[in-house]
């Protein structure tokens, strides 16, 4: 009952914010109608620069479950009708940069002292993200896709695909003509 009251007073137009919830940078976060959280959800949106754009933008009818952590210093966009299982981690930034030569990201430098590097994350409409998955900086997940439990997503996932594993790889795609999920080997036939 307390969670409903708090939702109604402080978190409109959300459906239900289960307590406790941890929010840093509330002014940099927006959510649509019907937003629901599990207990222990953590939303961090912080920047040194003032922005007119929401750093975490959550669409309509999105449900994030227990202990989901979403962190943004640039931008994380979540579409409509997205379901996120428990213990999922979504972050648009790293301590350091590891895809190019960057002397400030050396293992000789403590991670906390390495400069933050950020790339936007976009999660399309009707995506389902499984338990304990990690979505890392710069990833776009296409509409209608599924991310398997425990997956670590480091690259884009096309729409209507299933990605699983560490690192996540595409294992199936939805065939709109056959109206079924098919493996990539079946797709090549």
Written account of the structure:
Helix content is 7%, strand content 35%. The chain is mainly β and 189 residues long. The longest helix is centred in the N-terminal third of the chain and has 9 residues. The radius of gyration is 18 Å and the shape is globular.
Summarize the structure.
The protein is built from 2 helices and 22 strands. It has helices at 2-10, 184-188; strands at 16-17, 21-24, 29-31, 36-37, 41-45, 56-58, 63-64, 69-72, 76-78, 83-84, 89-91, 93-95, 116-118, 121-123, 128-129, 134-135, 140-141, 146-147, 152-153, 161-164, 169-175, 180-183.
Structure keywords:
189 residues, mainly beta, 7% helix
Treating each run of at least 4 consecutive H or I residues as one helix, how many helices?
2
What is the makeup of the main sheet?
A: 9 strands, mixed
Major β-sheet strand ordering:
1-4-7-10-15-18-20-21-22
Mean pLDDT: 93
For the terminal residues, how far apart are their CA atoms? Answer: 55 Å
Q: What does the overall shape look like?
A: globular
Taking pLDDT < 50 over at least 5 consecutive residues as the criterion, the unreliable ranges are: none
The string of secondary-structure elements, in order, is HEEEEEEEEEEEEEEEEEEEEEEH
Helix content: under 10%
Number of strands: 22
**Structural class of the helices, strands and pairings?**
mainly beta
Rg on CA atoms, Å: 18 Å
Strand content: 35-45%
